[in-house]
Write a structure and sequence with these properties.
175 residues; Wheat Germ Agglutinin (Isolectin 2), domain 1; three-stranded antiparallel sheet; globular
């Protein structure tokens, strides 16, 4: 089981992509430098910030998780925002748990298997085909990519081209 999450409502990368496309967030997912809510992703480059998961209504839970994530990633790594890193400068936290050290592998599989099936059986919200488990769609995309190749988001190859030219790397062809 691999959980890769953020405690924010969106990402800096999505904000940058929307700016390049001249688009906005689908909701007030950011605060400008003066603290005003906005759907304008351009505020992120001008001292604004992304709201935590839950947004303005329930962001206190995302804020709490954000602090835990910062403590586990940067605090344990010993490098982070206190060091004023340039660029992205992200750290990661990986925790490996051996179910055998607790209730046992079989019990873990039984409990998590039941939970997964309960999620799958849950009624989806209107307009949604079914309830998915986290990572389920990513695994399906991985299988498809292995079978058919990787579909890139529009604009990614154009953004990579200057780096390929700079480092003398031939760009792959488009299928």
């Amino acid at each position: 089981m691999l959980v890769d999450i953020s405690a924010s409502i969106t990402t800096n990368n999505m904000g940058a992509r929307l700016v390049r496309q001249g688009r906005r967030f689908p909701g007030q997912w950011a605060l400008d430098a003066a603290g005003h809510p906005t759907d304008d992703p351009a505020v992120l480059a001008a001292g604004g910030s992304i709201l935590p998961a839950g947004g303005l209504d329930h962001g206190h839970k995302g804020y709490g998780w954000a602090l835990v994530a910062e403590a586990l990633t940067q605090g344990l790594a010993g490098f982070g925002r206190a060091d004023a890193p340039n660029g992205w400068g992200a750290c990661a936290f990986v925790q490996v748990v051996d179910p055998a050290a607790f209730g046992g592998r079989e019990a873990f599989g039984r409990q998590t298997g039941w939970l997964a099936e309960a999620c799958r059986r849950a009624a989806p919200r209107p307009g949604v085909e079914r309830v998915r488990l986290p990572g389920e769609q990513a695994l399906a995309r991985r299988r498809d990519a292995l079978a058919r190749g990787v579909v890139m988001y529009p604009g990614i190859m154009d953004a990579l081209r200057p780096f390929a030219e700079r480092f003398g790397i031939e760009m792959p062809g488009v299928l």
